Amino acid sequence: MANADFGSPTGKLLRAEEYNPKHAAFPRLAPHEIWRAEWEVSSFRADVLAGLARMQKSIPPKYFYDVTGAALFEKICDLPEYYVTRAELEILAAHAGELAEMIGPDATLVELGSGNSLKTAYLLDRLQQPRAYVPVDVCAEALADAVQRLHRRYPGLLVLPVRADFTSSFPLPPAAAKATRTAVFFPGSTIGNLEPSEAVMLLRKIHRRLANGGVLIVGVDVTKPKAVLERAYNDSAGLTAAFNRNLLVRIRDELDAELDPAAFDHVAFYNVGAARIEMHLRSRTEQRVRVDDRSFRFMAGETLHTENSYKYSVDRFITLAQQAGYKSQAVWQDAQQHFSVHVLTP
Asked: CA 216 to CA 191: how far, in whole Å?
C-alpha cells in the first residue's frame, strides 16, 4: 500500500540488543526483530544543548522515556491521584466491541507511543483477524518487553515493533503495508503534550496514511477543576517528581554533564489561560550546568520547562480534528467525564 509509511521510506532491521548494549540483562527478541526508523538517541544531545540555550529553557518530553522513566511512568499510571489510565481503560472496556467493528477485519493496528501496550489488549482481543500490530515507541526496552508479552498472549499475531519518534517522519515495516486498511491507536492523551498547532500537523500526517477506510482512535484528557488536575501531577508518593527529575539524571549520565539533579525541584501547575498542565524543574539556587564545553546559567528559581499537557473539552478537540481533515464518528467518556476517546475518519 503506497501510504504505509509516516514519512521517509528509509529504515532498517536491527536486533533489539543492539540498542543498548550497556544493559547485560537486555531482553532478546530473536527471532523477532525491531524495525528502527532513522532516528537516533544522539539527537538527545542536540536537543538538550538547544533547549538550555533558550530564554525559557526547555527539553521535549519524549526524553522522559529511558528505561527508568518508562518504569516510573508505569507506576504513575497506578497512582490513586492519576485518573487518566483508569478512565481510559474504563472507556475501552465498555466500547472495545464497537471499536473493533469500526476498524473492521484484516486491519493493521498502529499504536503511537505504545509503551507497555497494555491498553491495546482491549482492541486485540476483539479485532477480526488483524493483519499485524505495529507498536511505535522511543524506548527499545519497553518495546522488547511488550513484544515478548504480546507473543505469549497472541501467538498467531504478527507484531512489528518500530523504534521511532512518532512526532517526526518515520517508515513502517514493509510487512505492515499488506493490510486492507490501517487503524491508528493513539491513547493516553499523549496528543496533549503537543502544542495545538503541532497536534494538527501530526493529525494531518496520520490522515494521509488512513487509506481504504482507516480510522484514528485517540485518547484525550478533558478539562476539569484545577485541583483535580494539579493533584494528578503532584502525587503524594513523589513518583511524578522522580519521573520529572530523571530527565536531569539522563543528561548527567548519558551526556557526561556537570549538574546535580537534587538541586532542582519538581513543579507542576495548571495554566488556566492555556488550558494545560505545565511541568518544570526549578533551580533551588543560582548555578551553572555544563554540557560538553558549554556552560548554562540558572538563576535561583529559574525553571527548565519539561512538559505541557493540554486539556480539551470534547467540542474543542472535535474542532481541532476537523482542522486536520477528520470527521468525528464517535466520542465516549468515562462515568466521571474525566477523559474522552475519539474515533475519527478522514
From this structure: 12
> And the C-alpha cell for 251?
543528561
> Does position 7 have pLDDT exceeding 90, yes or no?
no
Range of the domain at 165: 1-346
317: cell is 478537540
Q: What's the farthest any 2 CA atoms get from each other in the chain?
A: 59
Q: What's the CATH code of the domain at 237?
A: 3.40.50.150
315-323: which pairs have CB atoms within 8 A and are 24 or more residues apart? 317/220, 317/342, 318/342, 320/196, 320/199, 320/200, 320/203, 321/203, 323/200
pLDDT tens figures, 80-98: 999 999 999 999 999 999 9
Looking at every residue in the chain, the average pLDDT score rounds to 87
b/e per residue, 181-214, with b = 16+ CB within 10 A?
bbbbbbbbbbbbbbebeebbebbebbbebbeeeb
- Nearest Cα to Cα of residue 58 among 223, 278, 284: 278
- The number of folded domains in the chain is 1
Per residue in 188-245, pLDDT (tens digit) is: 999 999 999 999 999 999 998 886 779 999 999 999 999 999 999 999 999 999 999 9
How far is residue 261's CA from residue 251's CA, in Å, rounded to a whole number? 9
